[in-house]
Specification:
The protein has about 450 residues and is an alpha/beta fold. The chain has four domains: about 150 residues, 3-Layer(aba) Sandwich (Alpha-D-Glucose-1,6-Bisphosphate, Chain A, domain 3), CATH 3.40.120; about 70 residues, 3-Layer(aba) Sandwich (Alpha-D-Glucose-1,6-Bisphosphate, Chain A, domain 3); about 110 residues, Alpha-D-Glucose-1,6-Bisphosphate, Chain A, domain 3; about 80 residues, TATA-Binding Protein (2-Layer Sandwich). It is built from 13 helices and 19 strands. The chain has a six-stranded mixed sheet with strand order 1-5-4-2-3-6, sandwiched between helices. Strands 8-7-9-10-11 form a five-stranded mixed sheet, sandwiched between helices. Strands 13-12-14-15 form a four-stranded mixed sheet, sandwiched between helices. Strand 17 and strand 18 form a beta hairpin. The longest helix has 19 residues.
Length: about 450
């Protein structure tokens, strides 16, 4: 079982577990070695380049030093992109002649966390098989490093910005658009406001003052209250909320109502279908996507390819099926004709394009389908015992499913990126959903003594 890598890289508390300096150094060494070997990259007397970016967490610089030491021991040299969105590293690595890319980020997690994500030479997240191989080698110490100072590449963000601007239709403009942009005090703080302003929008930026400790704190895609208030206060046409590393996005309409990832997927699917650009006539979604979205796609004649939770699984389905669109209701959306990974700013651009083409208020995109009521409970845990091994919890889940009797579903899973159990109940009656979700959560807490409910 892979215990080092979660659904989106290695995460933890810096200075502890996998993020101790010696562990980061070993991870960098073995990760680079595996990627070199499996991609057939030859050293031939020169040090291959690996692109490295990070978000705004205060722990980033120290982790970067350990990371670069491990890369040096592996005979490779870092190309330091500085503070930059995760999807920028995915985009830039192959275009800057790098055999791989790495990002120091814990995405939407609080500032006390950090993490390490690997990308291969084509900009895809490291395949699970390679993660297993890296984990299998971690017991071996990394050899001493050879002094190889990283190349500084702080201006490479301009290449990424040019790409994003080129992804917005040339026939459209954001002139006259009032847009609130919440960057979660994260990696997009110096990118997103400038991007949308250069495309003509009047931008009201919030969450753009990172101090190393405030990433995702009461802002961004995981806490949209500030964005929604600001949209109403500014009488804006829309709002865009990014997470800390800007690989996911949510949209807020002119009334302050949120459009989640499912709503963005619906708008994108309809737009691509109209343009004859929805490859395969299918969209990749996860098991967490709303029944309302699935019904809407069926009405369009579009098949939903369902995957486990995690944008890597969405990407795998897109590549396997040859699709152009997929995503998660959390706001990870992959527009494959432009990029191999989720990109929050790109998602914002494509949604704004769909809105401008419609000639209607942004709220109209949020009414493409009627969402089936859902209740999601999140329980912070210390350990992750198998759900099937918890007799009382399993019985409660089965009883809830019997109560719904085919009218909905129950989905209980551990997060792959943080110590949290998620309990999702979806059905036609909101009060019933709440009762069932609360019942399962209470029994789990009693049976495991795991912790406390994080949020509702």
């Amino acid at each position: 079982m892979n215990t080092l890598f979660g659904t989106d890289g290695v995460r933890g508390i810096p200075g502890e577990g996998p993020l101790r300096p010696e562990s980061v150094r070993a991870l960098a060494y073995h990760g680079a070695k595996v990627l070199l070997e499996r991609q057939g990259v030859k050293v031939n007397g020169h040090a291959p380049l690996i692109a490295v970016g990070r978000d705004t967490r205060g722990s980033g610089p120290a982790l970067l030093r350990s990371l670069l030491s491990g890369f040096s021991a592996a005979g490779v040299r870092g190309l330091d992109l500085g503070v930059i969105p995760t999807p920028a590293v995915s985009y830039l690595a192959p275009r800057l002649g790098c055999f791989a890319g790495v990002v120091l980020s814990a995405s939407h997690n609080p500032a006390e966390y950090n993490g390490i994500k690997f990308f291969d030479g084509a900009g895809f997240k490291m395949a699970p098989a390679l993660e297993y191989e890296v984990e299998g080698r971690m017991a071996r110490p990394a050899p001493p490093a050879i002094a190889r100072p990283p190349f500084a590449a702080a201006d490479r963000g301009a290449i990424y910005m040019d790409f994003l601007k080129s992804a917005f239709p040339a026939a459209l403009s954001l002139e006259g658009t009032r847009l609130v942009v919440d960057c979660a005090h994260g990696a997009a703080s110096s990118f997103a406001p400038k991007l949308f302003a250069e495309l003509g929008a009047t931008v009201f930026a919030i969450g753009v003052k990172p101090n190393g400790r405030n990433i995702n704190a009461g802002c961004g895609a995981t806490a949209t209250e500030a964005l929604r208030r600001e949209v109403v206060r500014r009488r804006a046409d829309a709002g865009l909320a990014l997470d800390g590393d800007a690989d996911r996005a949510l949209i807020c309409d002119e009334r302050g109502k949120l459009l989640d990832g499912d709503a963005l997927i619906a708008a994108a699917a309809a737009r691509l279908l109209r343009r004859g650009a929805l490859k395969g006539g299918k969209v990749a979604v996860t098991v967490m996507s709303n029944f309302g979205l699935l019904s809407y796609l069926r009405g369009l004649g579009v098949e939903a390819v369902t995957t486990p939770v995690g944008d890597r699984y969405v990407t795998e389905a897109i590549e396997r099926e040859g699709l152009s669109l997929g995503g998660e209701n959390s706001g990870h959306v992959v527009f494959r004709d432009f990029a191999p990974t989720g990109d929050g700013m790109l998602t914002g651009l494509q949604t704004l394009a769909a809105w401008r083409e419609s000639g209607k208020p942004m709220s109209a995109l949020g009414r493409l389908y009627k969402a089936t009521p859902q209740v999601l409970r999140a329980i912070r845990v210390r350990q992750k015992p198998a759900i099937a091994a918890l007799g009382r919890t399993s019985t409660a889940i089965a009883a809830a499913e019997k109560t719904l009797d085919g009218r909905g579903r129950v989905f209980v899973r551990y997060s792959g990126t943080e110590p949290v159990l998620r309990v999702l109940v979806e059905g036609p009656k909101d009060a019933e959903n709440r009762r069932l979700a609360d019942g399962i959560a209470k029994i789990y807490l009693t049976e495991t003594g795991a912790g406390e409910e994080k949020h509702g």
